[in-house]
Amino acid sequence: MQLVFVKGAGKYDRMDLLRDGVVTSSVQCPKQGIIPHDMIHFAVESTLRLRGFVARALTGDDSGYRMTATPESDGVERLVEVFQADGWSGWTSEPTAMLDLYRVTCEARACHPLPIAPPDWLAVRERILELTTMWQRLPIGDSLTLDF
Questions:
Q1: 5 and 143 in contact (C-beta within 8 Å)?
Q2: Where is 2: in which H helix or E strand?
Q3: Residue 56, CA distances (Å) to 1, 42, 46, 63, 104 in order
Q4: Is the distance from CB of 54 to CB of 3 less than 8 angstroms?
Q5: Who's near 110: CB < 8 A, 6+ residues apart?
Q6: Of 27, 37, 7, whose CA–CA distance to 144 is shortest?
Q7: CA 138 to chain centre
Q8: Coil, strand, or helix at residue 79?
Q9: 25: phi > 0 → left, psi -120 to 50 → alpha, else beta; which?
Q10: Is the pLDDT assigned to residue 65 strictly greater than 70?
């Protein structure tokens, strides 16, 4: 299974989901000044071996992208949001501070935080920074294919 991120010229990039080499669905990704939201999902889910939006969508749980909530996927979504906040701050926030923010975010949304430690945070951030470098070098109209 693969994700293909296409760098758009306008306000959106695109993510295509491929199963057996066939595009099964596409998602418009609003540009946000950092890598696409769903690329952060990829980094979190593939690095930490979690089942969030991307893993669920790639295995067929993509009914209009309004998935039934699960504790793990809810925890992943909150984690992705906190990584986005780190990105908007330049990817330099202290892991312990971001994990505290993650716990607060989970509490505010009645979501149980996943057991993430500072080394986990740093491993995901390293993957995100690798993806950021690849994405920034990519010309408009080209794509980045990621195996999941």
A1: yes
A2: strand 2-6
A3: 12, 11, 12, 10, 25
A4: yes
A5: none
A6: 7
A7: 18
A8: helix
A9: beta
A10: no
Q: Looking at this protein, which amino acid is placed at residue 37?
A: H
Distance between CA 98 and CA 96 in Å, rounded? 5
- Per-residue pLDDT of 80-96, as tens digits, reads 999 999 999 999 999 99
Amino acid at 30: P
Calpha distance 10→68 (Å, rounded): 31
Q: Global pTM?
A: 0.92
Helix %, strand %, coil % of the chain (to 5): 45, 20, 35
The residue extents of the domains of the chain are: 2-147
Q: Is 27 in contact with 33 (CB distance < 8 Å)?
A: no
* Separation of alpha carbons 6 and 36, rounded Å: 10
Six-digit token string for 70: 């699960």
